[in-house]
Design a protein that fits this description.
CATH architecture of one domain in chain C: 2-Layer Sandwich
Mean pLDDT of chain C: 96
Strand order of the largest sheet of chain B: 3-5-1-12-9-10-11
Order of helices and strands of chain C: EHEHEEEHHHHHHEEHEEEEEEEHHH
CATH architecture of one domain in chain B: Alpha-Beta Complex
Structural class of chain C: alpha+beta
Strand order of the largest sheet of chain C: 4-5-10-6-7
Structural class of chain B: alpha+beta
Strand content of chain B: 15-25%
Distance between the termini of chain C: 50 Å
Largest sheet of chain C: 5 strands, antiparallel
CATH topology of one domain in chain C: Enolase-like, domain 1
Number of helices of chain C: 12
Number of strands of chain B: 28
Number of strands of chain C: 14
CATH superfamily of one domain in chain B: Aldehyde oxidase/xanthine dehydrogenase, a/b hammerhead
Mean pLDDT of chain B: 97
Strand content of chain C: 15-25%
Radius of gyration of chain B: 27 Å
Chains: A alpha+beta (153), B alpha+beta (780), C alpha+beta (265)
Low-confidence stretches of chain B: none
Low-confidence stretches of chain C: none
CATH class of one domain in chain C: Alpha Beta
Helix content of chain B: 25-40%
CATH superfamily of one domain in chain C: CO dehydrogenase flavoprotein, C-terminal domain
CATH class of one domain in chain B: Alpha Beta
Shape of chain B: globular
Distance between the termini of chain B: 60 Å
Number of helices of chain B: 19
Helix content of chain C: 25-40%
Largest sheet of chain B: 7 strands, mixed
Oligomer: heterotrimer
């Protein structure tokens, strides 16, 4: 089937299988390997991308569901020299170790801050990131980074 | 000193690629013409393979080949070895069942691979794998660890499913001490099976060049050289010089990616067999079934005390689950990484430990973060805390009475280790102050007024890290030395390329090791590049595990840097017409003593590669290597205190506070060290409160996904309060001890001591899940 | 995942027709359950009919005594809706407690009800509030809707359009979350509505149910202590790794008591 979608401000017209998952399109067809797959039961959140203004697990979105969608992956957030405040905060607060969960975590964190409308505390950050597993950091520095970035977004 | 040298909170340079999505993990690598591997796995915990009919699978669309264990064996592919020989107390060698990469005659755990399908696409490989028809004769499995020795014999020639029955310590002295004890504390408990679950699943991309007979294997390994050594020397995949193993960015390991597994091996072989690059990436479901699991002990432990609360002796009997086969380092974990740590921080004069290691029809069990030391700490610290409660002594005070004192180092324990240095009371006192120990009774009252229970628990752990002095390790059965290599290559323009045999999969070596070399050579941090994880670019190396990287790998870089400085002095002396002995090196400048003659590091580097009239005995170039072999283990130690609040109506345990005061010796980058501690604590808390790998009676893994295996999430944990004390390691040039495992080692006992304190029960099994806690309160 | 044809109808009629035209087809709402099920090969529909583009299925409308939520309204939108927060704050709270943020950003009310997972949150509210489930062919009372484990009164091809929630005088929800999956091990929604207090329980049984014995014991008064003694037959409760039937019964009592306390507060 034909799929039109915009990823990181670039419009794409693709021929995809109806049972293709958004994450497969992002990693495979578009070669954007910053989005990762860490599980097969829609739990870990490593594949989180922003789709039409919402953080979603791209392993649980069918190709067709992304028809005409605007998707932002980690590659679309910012590059060195022009980083998103959340990216900067993750480095500044040592909020990542192996880096594998990091892209999904950053996308979720940005979504969380946007929705929180200035009302974020530690508990809200912890609850808000419950859809993203990290095995390295114990979340301590991630929480610090998100709270710090929230003040700058 | 530079603001990016040793001891500074330097931001990690590797983060730039990770936060922008430019990391390069194994599954991100795609080679032209690659085919995809999908493994066919046993649905049974124990069965004889009668026939495998792959004819339908072979005819399926896109299938390149279907191969079984027999195909690998016919091609000379050998069994996966275990790298550490343990001897039983009667002197006999441990029993080693053969583990072919793909099972041939029998399958021995659910998820064991016995065939592999290679196809043009992943979807085609999956579809074809479902068409492989296998006729199994199901056999009665051995699932229960407690009953494993009485069950049917899993492997031919291995009676009672016993791999070894090992002991350490002076049994007679222990018996004598118990006979005169005023008090004996006894506990029987399990150390729950854990599933490591690095968020990046294992993966491999293999390619074979027929004209040159060379393999390149990209894989998720913590130690690519060891993988190459084993695949060459034992598995017979290819000669070592024809096999390049590359570990690109690796998304966490925690021990589980040390080992050489069937899948990577078979994928590499299949690349040659099909003459196609072959890619395999584990699903999480496969990872649950086939990654080596951790822990899984049953233990009876006793501590004898005199009337004054002095520890007299300890007696420990453990049955350790090895799973169905011996994974790469499985045998060493419940022995040399466990029994040797049972002295803890205390002067207990006599200790005897027996470990019976057995096979069961479950996934192999091997090193997982802490590896033996969390289990040992759990034994010691649960015993000590329980003894304090039973004898009515404050648990902090009982520990103070029994700590090895700072003036007693080096201290030889009754279980074969010599601790070089430490100050255990210093960590304890700092942690007590941080948690406000004196204020705990008041906090408990507040909780109780709200209908809650509150508890506090200690864990004063010790670990042996910096693996390991090769001579000792080889004496004890290790199949390899445990030194580390380092190379410091100064480029003509004065920038430095550092090669380390250590491997980073989250630890931040690219930053830390650059700090070390930059500090040592006085060159800017930005001018030092760190290369790791590629057998094609580096000297032999042993990789990363056992909190060894800076203590051993960092020390190798110091030694190599010393050689650079020595060579630099000779070059400078020649250029400045002086004697090398008169040249000092400091902060990147070579200067002739008592003169104003000097050269910068960059000038010397340039001269090394533009050697105008060097004398005959002075070689051009400025590049040095070192293999650092540690003289002893390092002994990080510390005090962890957990405070929990329990809802008696639901059984929910909330970890309210966690204080960790650790002595890692000198610290290269405090920011990274704190991060390592946080992560370790989270895994330790996970073991205590959330995580449990469970096989049902029929041998099926019932916690086979994140829907059932409970991983710590952000809202399961508090922020942690971490601090350090410092007694520098006495025998490595950096004075460092290692920090990667401390949290996972200390936390389980601290949390369970707090939970049992809150519930006022003697013991409770891990994990302290809500229903278990609720039932304990109903029974109390 | 098996192959299937994908459809994206834009009208209710077209969706229902597509479903009728392919007996082994499945509707796709948010996909939070269906897609994982497809990935595991536990469902193999010939056709997937995505409801995302169907006009008129998403949205929230508030009349004086009735809150209507379209079937394709996502959990996050229910949680954040000013109307829901004003009319039935407990329902907004319930939606904010479902799964995790990404699930709430995709999952829908209709999808949750059509699937009738025994551990889903919404059914507790639907039962307790006496909501009406509006489909393409009829309107059903909540009490008639849930039939068993993953079983509802929906006929093959019947499509939920919206759910009408009567606005209660007050309501409260308390949930005990599964530590791994974050589904409800036990969830209790209490609502003071009409003549008395209704109690909806999810997570504990094969499907959501009313705890009528507690409703009777309360006799219209939010007396939390009644939850400790009201008869509760847990013989047919769910039991799994993380909670036995007996423990679930305890959790139902505790969650009910806490919800009632919240109601009274």
């Amino acid at each position: 089937m034909k799929l039109s979608l915009t990823v990181n401000e670039t419009a794409h017209e693709l021929e995809v299988a109806p049972n293709a998952l958004l994450v497969e399109i992002i990693r495979g067809d578009l070669g954007l390997t910053g989005t990762h797959v860490g599980c097969d039961t829609s739990q870990c959140g490593a594949c989180t991308v922003e789709m039409d203004g919402r953080a979603v697990k791209s392993c649980t979105v069918l190709a067709g569901q992304a028809q005409d969608a605007r998707v932002t992956t980690i590659e679309g957030l910012g590059a060195p020299g022009n980083l998103h405040p959340m990216q900067t905060a993750f480095q500044a607060h040592h909020a990542l170790q192996c880096g594998f969960c990091t892209p999904g975590m950053i996308i979720s964190a940005i979504d969380l801050v946007k929705r929180a409308d200035g009302r974020l505390d530690e508990a809200a950050v912890r609850e808000g990131l419950a859809g993203n597993l990290c095995r390295c950091t114990g979340y301590h520095n991630i929480v610090e980074a998100v709270l710090a970035a929230a003040g700058q977004m | 000193m530079s603001d990016q040298g040793i001891g500074q909170r330097v931001k990690r340079r590797e983060d730039v690629r990770f936060i922008t999505g430019k990391g390069r993990y194994t599954d991100d690598i795609n080679l032209p013409g690659q085919a995809y591997a999908v493994f066919v796995r046993s649905p049974h915990p124990r069965a004889r393979i009668k026939t495998i009919d792959a004819s339908a699978a072979r005819k399926a669309p896109g299938v390149v080949g279907v191969f079984t264990g027999k195909d690998l064996a016919a091609d000379g592919i050998g069994a996966l070895p275990c790298g550490w020989l343990v001897k039983s107390k009667d002197g006999s060698d441990m029993k080693v069942p053969p583990r072919p990469p793909l099972a041939i005659e029998t399958v021995n755990f659910v998820g064991e691979p016995y065939a592999v399908v290679i196809a043009e696409t992943l979807g085609q490989a999956r579809a074809a794998a479902a068409l492989v028809e296998t006729d199994f004769e199901e056999l009665e499995p051995v699932v229960s660890l407690a009953e494993a020795t009485a069950g049917p014999q899993i492997h031919e020639g291995i009676e009672a499913n016993r791999c070894y029955d090992w002991e350490l310590g002076d049994q007679a002295a222990v018996d004598a001490a118990f006979a005169k004890a005023a008090h004996v504390t006894k506990l029987e408990f399990a150390n729950n099976r854990l599933i490591p679950n690095a968020i990046e699943p294992r993966a491999a991309v293999a390619t074979y060049s027929a004209p040159t007979e060379e393999f390149t294997l990209y894989t998720t390994s913590q130690n690519p050289h060891l993988e190459r050594l084993i695949l060459a020397a034992f598995v017979n995949l290819a000669p070592e010089h024809k096999l390049r193993v590359i570990s690109p960015d690796v998304g966490g390991g925690f021990g589980s990616k040390i080992f050489v597994y069937p899948e990577e091996t078979a994928a590499a072989w299949a690349a040659r067999r099909t003459n196609r690059p072959v890619k395999w990436t584990a699903d999480r479901s496969e990872a649950f079934l086939s990654d080596a699991h951790g822990r899984d002990h049953l233990t009876t432990a006793e501590l004898a005390l005199d009337a004054a609360g002095t520890f007299l002796a300890m007696r420990v009997r453990t049955r350790a689950n090895l799973g169905a086969y011996l994974s790469t380092f499985a045998s060493s974990v419940p022995t040399y990484l466990y029994g040797t740590l049972l002295a803890g921080q205390y002067r207990t004069p006599a200790i005897h430990v027996e470990v019976e290691a057995v096979f069961t029809n479950t996934a192999p069990v091997d090193a997982y973060r802490g590896a033996g030391r969390p289990e040992a700490t759990y034994v010691v610290e649960r015993l000590v805390e329980t003894a304090a409660r039973e004898t009515g002594v404050d648990p902090a005070e009982l520990r103070r009475r029994n700590f090895i004192q700072p003036d007693q180092f080096p201290y030889e324990t009754p279980v074969a280790l010599v601790y070089d240095t430490g100050d255990y009371q210093a960590s304890l006192e700092k942690a007590l102050k941080q948690i406000d120990y004196a204020g705990f009774p008041a906090r408990r009252k507040v909780s109780e007024a709200a209908g809650k229970r509150r508890g506090l628990g200690f864990s004063c752990y010790i670990e042996a890290c910096g693996l390991a002095p090769s001579q000792l390790a080889i004496q004890l059965g290790a199949g390899v030395g445990l030194y580390e290599s380092g190379e410091v290559r100064v480029n003509p323009t004065g920038s430095v390329t550092v090669f380390t045999g250590s491997h980073s999969h989250g630890q931040g070596h690219e930053t830390t090791f650059a700090q070390i070399v930059s500090d040592k050579l006085g060159v800017p941090f930005e001018s030092v590049e760190v290369v790791h994880g590629d057998t094609g670019r580096l000297e032999f190396g042993l990789g990363t595990y056992g909190s060894r990287s800076v203590a051993v790998g960092g020390s190798a870089l110091i030694k190599a840097s010393d050689k650079i400085i020595a060579k630099g002095k000779r070059i400078a002396a020649h250029m400045l017409e002086s004697a090398p002995d008169d040249v000092d090196f400091d902060e990147g400048v070579f200067a002739v003593r008592k003169t104003n003659k000097s050269l910068t590091f960059g000038e010397v580097a340039f001269a090394a590669y533009v050697p105008a009239n060097f004398p005959e005995d002075l070689e051009p170039g400025l590049s040095e290597k070192s293999f650092y072999d540690p003289k002893n283990f390092t002994f990080p130690a510390g005090c962890h205190i957990a405070e929990v609040e329990v809802d008696p109506e639901t059984g929910v345990v909330v970890l309210v506070r966690f204080v960790a005061v650790d002595d890692f010796g000198e610290v290269i980058n405090p920011m990274i060290v704190e991060g390592q501690v946080h992560g370790g604590i989270a895994q330790g808390v996970g073991q205590a409160l959330l995580e449990h790998g469970i096989y049902d009676e029929s041998g099926q893994l019932v916690t086979g996904s994140f829907m059932d295996y409970c991983m710590p999430r952000a809202d399961d944990l508090p922020s942690f309060e971490v601090d350090t004390t410092v007694t520098p390691c006495t025998h490595n040039p950096l004075g460092v001890k290692g920090c990667g495992e401390a949290g996972a080692i200390g936390a389980p006992a601290a949390v369970m001591n707090a939970v049992t304190d809150a519930l006022r029960v003697k013991d409770l099994a891990m994990p302290a899940s809500p229903e278990r806690v609720w039932r304990a309160l109903q029974a109390a | 995942m098996n192959g299937f044809d994908y459809h994206r109808p834009e009208t209710l009629e077209a969706a229902v027709a597509a479903r009728a035209g392919a007996p082994d087809s499945a509707y796709l709402a948010g996909g939070m359950t269906l897609i994982p099920t497809l990935k595991q090969g536990l469902a193999e529909p010939s056709d997937v009919i995505d409801l995302a583009a169907v006009a008129g299925l998403a949205g929230i409308g508030l009349e004086v005594d009735r809150l209507t939520i379209g079937a394709m309204t996502r959990h996050a939108d229910v949680a954040a809706s000013a109307e829901v927060q004003r009319a039935i704050p407990a329902l907004a709270y319930l939606a904010s407690e479902i799964g995790d943020a990404q699930v709430r950003n995709r999952g829908t009310l209709g999808g949750s009800l059509a699937n009738s997972d025994p551990a889903a949150d919404y059914p507790a509210a639907v039962i307790a509030l006496g909501a009406r489930i509006v489909t393409d062919r009829r309107t059903m009372a909540a009490d008639d809707y849930f039939k068993g484990l993953f079983e509802t009164a929906l006929e093959p091809g019947e499509l939920i359009r919206a759910v009408e929630f009567p606005v209660p005088r007050r309501a409260a929800y308390r949930k005990f979350r599964h530590p791994a999956s974050r589904y409800a091990v036990a969830g209790v929604f209490v609502a003071e509505i009409g003549e008395g207090i209704r109690v909806g329980v999810t997570g504990a049984g094969p499907c959501a149910f009313r705890w009528t014995a507690l409703e009777t014991a309360l006799a219209g008064k939010p007396a939390p202590a009644a939850a400790e003694t009201a008869p509760l037959d847990f013989r047919r409760f769910n039991a799994d790794l993380h909670a036995s039937a007996e423990y679930r019964a305890q959790l139902v009592r505790v969650m009910a008591r806490r919800a009632l306390a919240n109601l009274a507060a």
